């Protein structure tokens, strides 16, 4: 999957991904429109077709599932980070959002082209290739189906 880089830093918590003030509604489109608003008010407009490239501990903080939903609804192709908070990791996989955990920081800038591949467990940008943690076959199946709910519907 090819996308454009949207950079984020270390310790991006779920409240930065989607602020709690927007959780009074179940409107996923509203969450997508306000994703990262407190980090960068214009960031949500750059998310469709993007790959978020972050540092360590992406998705820390509360266990709000809405963070992964907001990113997927906003059109994020995947998230690359050196580490993910455990609950965010599972929430993202269960919602069909591809994650790429790499050993070291990915050298890139906002707007750079980036190619991410779950099948090859790699990320490529700026002529450099980074290996990512290989997801289990079951996790790959969930992502391929578009999320765990869609997988269960398909299995019925």
What class, by secondary structure content? alpha/beta
Rg, Å, rounded: 14 Å
Low-confidence stretches: none
Please tell me the overall pLDDT. Answer: 96
Task: Give the percentage of residues in beta strands.
Answer: 15-25%
CATH class: Alpha Beta
Counting DSSP E segments of at least 2 residues, the number of strands comes to 7
- Head-to-tail CA distance between termini: 29 Å
Query: How can the largest sheet be summarized?
Result: 7 strands, mixed
Overall outline: globular
Q: What is the CATH topology assignment?
A: Aconitase, domain 4
Helix segment count? 6
Strand ordering within the main sheet: 4-3-2-1-5-6-7
CATH superfamily: Aconitase, domain 4
Order of helices and strands: EHHEHEHEEEEHH
Description:
The protein has helices spanning 14-17, 28-33, 66-73, 86-94, 137-145, 148-155, and strands at 2-7, 50-53, 78-81, 99-101, 113-117, 122-125, 128-131. Strands 4-3-2-1-5-6-7 form a seven-stranded mixed sheet, with helices on one face. The longest helix has 9 residues, at 86-94. Helix 5 crosses helix 6 (148-155). It has a single domain, classed as Aconitase, domain 4, CATH 3.20.19. By secondary structure, the chain is α/β, with parallel strands linked by helices. The mean pLDDT is 96. Helix 3 (66-73) links the parallel strand 2 and strand 3 (78-81).
């Amino acid at each position: 999957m090819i996308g454009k880089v949207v950079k984020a830093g270390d310790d991006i918590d779920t409240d930065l991904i989607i602020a709690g003030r927007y959780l009074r509604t179940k409107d996923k489109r509203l969450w997508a429109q306000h994703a990262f608003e407190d980090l960068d008010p214009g960031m949500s407009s750059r998310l469709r077709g993007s790959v978020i490239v972050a540092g360590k501990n992406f998705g820390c903080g509360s266990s709000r599932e809405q963070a992964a939903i907001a990113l997927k609804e906003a059109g994020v192709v995947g998230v690359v980070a050196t580490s993910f908070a455990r609950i965010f990791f599972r929430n993202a996989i269960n919602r069909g959002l591809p994650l790429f955990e790499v050993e070291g920081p990915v050298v890139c800038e906002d707007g750079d082209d980036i190619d991410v591949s779950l099948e090859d467990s790699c990320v490529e940008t700026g002529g450099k290739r980074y290996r990512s943690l290989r997801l289990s076959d079951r996790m790959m199946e969930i992502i391929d189906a578009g999320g765990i709910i869609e997988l269960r519907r398909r299995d019925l």
